[in-house]
Amino acid sequence: MHQRQLGPFAVNAIGLGCMNICHAYGNPVSKEQAERFLRTALDVGVTHFDTAALYGFGVSETLVGQVLGPYRQKFTLASKCGMTVEEDGHRVKQGRVIDGRPETLRATCEGSLKRLKTDVIDLYYLHRWDKSVPIEESVGALGDLVREGKIRTIGLSEVSATTLRKAHKEHPITAVQTEYSLWTRNPEIAVLAACRELGVSFVAFSPVARGFLCDAVPDVAALPEKDIRRAMPRFSAENYPKNQALLAPYRKIAQEVGCTPAQLALAWLLHQGQDILPIPGTANEAHLVENMAAADIVLSKEVLDRLNNLINQRTVSGNRYSEQSAREVDTEPLA
Q1: Is 25 an active-site residue?
Q2: What does residue 95 show for φ and ψ, rounded to 5 degrees?
């Protein structure tokens, strides 16, 4: 197993994002399928499981707790607060909300602990910075949870280098999680350098470009109605054909290397630094095994240069988020 440090935790270089088992991509996975998949993930060497209160509005955490709870000492558990569902009793009031108030973060953590069937969460992220609440206030509340023994370390998701530095002064930050892949280079602007300056691990979500850098390239017209990619500019009728033109030369490189397109995307990320930990999300057991094998792939400088020249912020068409979703994040915009 190829291990990397996630703050104080030694984990497999490639972890697992647990959103896909119940959330965001429109194809429901049965409870039985999800349970079998999570057991398989543990069997094939996943030691870093990443979930959130938001995913399925608690369903992902519940599944992780039910299936993996008995094996809690075998893996590092990460979850998130600060972006979840607003409820009135058992009724959803508004759907998804971003709320970084200390009392909300505490309540979410208490719920997560119960769903995850654990006494402590190893790494607890602020899923989004609530810009109506000073970052120091939200992180200070998470620091209280560390002192109380409910969480071990603190992470931030989709934040800028400036916000990271402010937060780190309030309480040490263990990890920053942001989208990072060949086609999403925003972290390279400033936040990666800030992480390295402060000794913060970097967790890369959507490392295979939301399925774009895979064998089965998404057919946007066939995506389920609730698939989040339908609202993403890179998958629009205007931009998607331009992006698809990148795939033929990309697949040629994968063929030359002797790996799948998804493995090439993950291997590229792993070559960007020992402090980078990809968490590809899937609910497909074959894809899971394929992803984990990417840690064995060694890429030459010549291959890395070809990949960087082929797919980058200048060659990809469209923003990664819609205007509304872009307002919810705090990352530096691409120049």
Answers
A1: no
A2: 80, -145
Computed over every residue of the chain, the mean pLDDT equals: 93
Catalytic residue among 55, 124, 180, 250: 55
How far apart, in Å, are the Cα atoms of 117 and each of 10, 51, 92, 213, 306?
22, 13, 24, 35, 46
E strand intervals along the chain: 3-6, 9-12, 16-17, 48-50, 76-81, 83-88, 91-98, 121-126, 151-157, 175-179, 201-205, 276-278
DSSP state, residue 39: H
pLDDT digits (tens, 9 = 90+) for 17-45: 999 898 667 677 889 999 999 999 999 99
pTM of this prediction?
0.94
Domain residues for the domain of 157 are 3-327
Give residue-wise pLDDT tens across range 212-259: 999 887 788 888 888 889 999 999 999 999 999 999 999 999 999 999
- Kindly state whether residue 92 falls inside one of the protein's structural domains: yes
Contacts (Cβ under 8 Å, ≥6 apart) of 247:
212, 217, 261
- Helix (H/G/I), strand (E/B), else coil: 260: coil
- Residue 257 falls inside a structural domain: yes
Token readout for 3 is 């291990």
- The two three-digit tokens of residue 54, written as one number: 């938001």
